[in-house]
Design goal:
By secondary structure, the protein is of the alpha/beta class. The chain is built from 11 helices and 14 strands. This is DegT/DnrJ/EryC1/StrS family aminotransferase.
């Protein structure tokens, strides 16, 4: 699903030079490398501010805390996501509420969210799952009319756009992860908050650093969640390659959409007309998933499941409040979803192999 060892030697040389630059500087935390990357990432996201933090989960928590969302407040999100999305809400002290997904996209259903709204709803955490951004005008209208904050989980949507607007630019703020497997990945953990709300940006910048306003002055309780200089320098290098890598992911996805002729699988909805899908993952659904996975493995093709256990089936989330009509679309998707290789190091011969393997499957 990923092949970091196949990355170009030029990229590896550039990263080594960045690491050496940090070592030579003698400055390892919240220094010039972080500042430079924050500026570049804000520009790439077409927003005025980016704040580097420890990881993507912390980015969500810091946004919620920056908005004074905490005990007694409800935050609606999807059960079809990484556990970190829900854990960030819990760590902020708020109450997660699970709404169902749209089966055609696997994204959060607005109708389900509306059924989950209560007077205690303070935010909706919208996860741009798999790298797709959809229907954002409708989400903005709902947030305005119902009075909640729209927070974007952009962990899988680096450089995804809709109508020319990048992920993270639709709501009050966006949370990015730079975990190594992400479209823009560090060589360790990392994350960022992006926003056009300058007051929120300033508060997040304080909260990530013990709540410190100036050295030795802590006007509020913060946390330790700082993007370090080494990872920032590496991310600045890798950012130079992101556009080309994203284009390669899109080329792979276009071939899948054109050439997969397998009646035992269902493709998710194609991107909207003005959208650029980042294709962090290329996901299909199959009622014969286990047999298909075994078939692909025998053909030398790796496939993974993202995510086979929805949040409300996690041991720690069994009593979590949810859509009163249940979460049937999420449960069905979790049983059938399957991710095919879609990383930028996948060459055309390997792509041919994946397509041939999928098309040769025969459901019994």
């Amino acid at each position: 699903m990923n092949d970091f060892k196949a990355e170009p030697a030029e990229l590896q040389t550039e990263m080594l030079a960045a690491v050496q630059r940090v070592i030579a500087s003698g400055w390892y935390v919240l220094g010039p490398e972080v500042q430079a990357f924050e500026q570049r990432w804000a520009e790439d996201c077409q927003l005025p501010r980016a704040i580097g933090v420890g990881n993507g989960m912390d980015a969500i928590e810091l946004i919620l805390r920056g908005l004074n969302i905490g005990p007694g407040d409800e935050v609606i999100t999807t059960p079809m996501t990484a556990f970190a999305s829900v854990l960030a809400i819990l760590r902020a002290g708020a109450v997660p509420v699970l709404a169902d997904i749209d089966p055609d996209t696997a994204l959060l259903s607005r109708a389900s969210v509306e059924r989950c709204l209560t007077p205690r709803t303070r935010a909706v955490l919208l996860v741009h799952l798999y790298g797709q951004v959809r229907d954002m005008a409708e989400w903005q209208i709902l947030a305005r009319d119902k009075g909640f904050a729209l927070v974007e989980d952009c962990a899988q949507s680096h450089r995804a756009t809709l109508g020319g607007v990048r992920a993270g630019g639709f709501g009050v703020a966006g949370a990015y992860s730079f975990y190594p497997t992400k479209n823009l990945g560090a060589l360790g953990d990392g994350g960022a908050v992006v926003t056009r709300d300058m007051a929120l940006a300033d508060r997040v910048a304080r909260l990530r650093n013990y709540g410190q306003s100036e050295r030795y002055h802590h006007p509020e309780i913060g946390m330790n969640s700082r993007l370090d200089e080494m990872q920032a320098a590496i991310l600045s290098v890798r950012l130079n390659w992101l556009a080309g890598y994203t284009e390669r992911r899109q080329q792979i996805a276009q071939r899948y959409r054109a050439e997969l002729k397998q009646p035992a699988i269902r493709l998710l909805a194609a991107p909207q007309e003005t959208a650029a899908h980042a294709y962090h993952l290329f996901v299909v659904c199959s009622a014969h998933r286990d047999a298909l996975v075994a078939h692909l493995k025998a053909a030398g093709v790796q496939a993974l499941l993202h995510y086979p256990v929805p949040m409300h089936h996690q041991q720690t989330c069994l009593d979590m409040r949810r859509d009163p009509l249940g979460l049937p679309a999420s449960e069905q998707h979790a049983l059938q979803c399957l991710s095919l290789p879609c990383h930028p190091q996948l060459d055309d011969a390997q792509l041919d192999q994946v397509i041939a393997a999928v098309n040769s499957f025969r459901a019994i």
